[in-house]
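Hi everyone, sorry if this is the wrong subforum. Our group has a chain we'd like a structural model of before ordering constructs, and none of us has done structure prediction before. Sequence below.
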Amino acid sequence: MYPRHCRNKPKSFFCRPAFGFIVFGLLTFVVFAAGLYHLRNDEWKNGGEEVAENLGTVGAVITASVPDEISRETKIKSLASGEEIGAATQGIDKGVFYHTVKISLPAIDREKEFYEGWLLCQTPFDFFSTGEMVTDVEGNFVLEWAGNHDDIDDYTHVVITREARGSGAAPGEKVAEGEWK
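Answer:
Right subforum, don't worry. Here is the predicted structure as tokens:
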């Protein structure tokens, strides 16, 4: 059936059934894109905060404390040697998502470089920084992060990168990684 204004006229593009499908498809895409934009900007970009103490000094020493209730733990392996060099945990404690890392990495010149943690989601591909790692009293590199992420189960990979100071927000050289299954 054609709309009333199209019945006795030559069939233009606007009087064909395909036009309705195209309009419907475009509207669906616009609504989907707007919802995705809203979700990512409101929840992911502004939701987390770093819990590790940032003492503002190079080589600051803190002790890593892991919450009592651990949901998942994974081993972290060096990309250079393939050996296990530490562990990462993630879970929810009192409604807040937390993430911790404790690994043994080579010493670096902290005035020029630092190690940074990242959580990675494969599908849809997304990642975010969990902050700069500091050392504990034993000399291990540690990181504690907490934030509000409803769908954090999608972030199944932890990545550690080596960053040059002042290099920007993009991830640097990958040095270690782990995966929750």
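For your construct planning: Residues 22 and 28 are 10 Å apart (CA to CA). The mean pLDDT is 76.
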